[in-house]
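Table S7 (text form). Paired inputs.
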Amino acid sequence: MVKTFFIPNKQSILGQQEILTAKSVLALVDGLESHSYDAVYLRQPLNRLEYIECGIVGKSQFLFKVRYADAQKGYQVIIPDLITRADWEIVEALLETLSSKVGEAVEGLSDFDLEDYFQETVKNYLADKDARLAFCQGILSTIYFDKKDLESFLEENGLARFEELVKKVQGSDAYPASAKFYPDSEGKVHGIYHLAQGVKTILPKGPVVPVPYVEQLAGKDLVWEIDLVKISGDGSKPEDYEAVARLDYQAFLEALPKELCQDLDANQVEVGPVFGEDFEALANR
């Protein structure tokens, strides 16, 4: 469920107005940046790009898209199915300034209510009875929530509760671990996470196949593991990092001292930093 707002390009007896460049669109809101194209591409008219993903560093929790639809001869602003009020303020500011620049009204704005949109999105997530976890992609990281979270979002101040969860996950200063995949001679695929000594790390409670690998790994026999990595020297060179143990992932999570873990969301935990005897004990399991 995504929402698209539309601003037709101004028409006159001389034809339609010149299409704005991507750079000109971004300049309509102070601090708005593209997260999908480098600056050199932004000098082109917007219709020469598929779309630009936009946000303001330090304020945005989610990105939204802006594109020019040649077939409809106008600008589209597309928001994701879940956003915060701070994100909506940015989107609304762009819609207003772009509408003023083009000289046409925004279609789909007058009857839009963020709270209603949020509630409908949550209900759609809950309608999937087979899903144990749901997730949304933030500007910095993925945020996971379970049925209990979703139900709480439908209660009073549910949007504020959602915003707190998003900020908690994306505000973490821990390193977000991601699995690397390696096939072995027995036809299995090993998904391996890494935990470096002394580095606070975000790990999943249940391993996750990233979206780009879902089709490639469908039907494969997956083995989830974690490498414990010792750091020597100042950590500036590749040779400063040495994997000293490879452990079964679930067994590793169960062996972690509770005081070294902090839940972030329904499927992510902040681990460490793990030093000294605690690291050696895990490595020697």
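Next pair, protein 2 of 2.
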Amino acid sequence: MAASSGDLRDVQNSCDGCELCGAMENLLRCGGCRTAYYCSKEHQRTHWKKHKRICKSKSKKGDRDPTASQQPRVTLATEGNVISNNTCDSKAEADSQSKSQAQKTAKAKQNGTGLSSVSPDFTSFRSFSDMLPEDVDNNRDGSRDAPANRTELDAKRDKDMAEYIVRRLNTDGICVVDNFLEEPVGESILEEVKGLREEGVFSDGQLVNQAAADTARNIRGDIITWVEGKEANCRRIGHLVSRMDTIIMKCNSKLGKCKINGRTKAMVACYPGGGSRYIRHVDNPNGDGRCVTCIYYLNKNWDVRKNGGLLRIFPQGRDEVADIEPRFNRLLFFWSDRRNPHEVQEAFATRYAITVWYFDAEERARAMERSRNSIGNS
């Protein structure tokens, strides 16, 4: 029996989602402590090594959530919303050995195009919009709020979003934000991008180390144009970049050692279908100053099974990949350097995105100095 939408909102208010992956749907409650939630028995078993001490302590002392009996019973599509822990210990060692063996197998299968394993633990990203109260995320037109309240809600949303981005970048190196702008604004940005393409201002994407034209087209198949956002036909794109800047500045000084002091223009990119792609690469392999890549997607009703165009990230030092679908009104952040090699897989429909790179002040200064010295010695 599936949970009703009302039940799901209550659960979201009473817990932080699955302890392992953060999922907020179809939650099961731990049968030992009754305070932890999981989206599946498999995720509970995987997380048991970390959870068992807390769980057994609460179970032994009877230190359970005093409101547990009042919390809604949410099930998966089968009977039983409480997961029993009596098999977790016996399976923990076997699961650990299985995971270790899987990692070894994955490493053995690595090749020049990337890693062979896809971990659901790492790819099940919680988008920021999934964590917002309904009145903040879905009522963005202000129709039910007084102007002052709307301003306060927007300010709180920006603050919460910045904190979430900082947390996810520092933990995973990747962060997803869905429903970033009001949908009509996103649609108007898409119309501006389509208008730019009709004007014929796009050209073939370039490489850091430029190869011959035919070789370059095999490496990346997108066409691009750069805009300030101040152009008369790019006002909505300018609004998007301004919103990106606002969020990034709220994150500044909290993103590791980065001190962001500038950015590139907005790169508007189109993969025109026909299997166009961008093979595995790193945005900033040589310390040019770019520290954060920020991509906004504009693809309505995108189906990667039919349309392709998946962004796959290969986080450094991990035997897993992160698959990001280029969905409409989705904003993606990730570190620009060698920590995140990535590729755009073959696209079979027109795929649009807008990318901005943010500069770390110190690395950018060193890059500019190297450039000046290179020119002076030539």
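The two ends are 73 Å apart (CA to CA).
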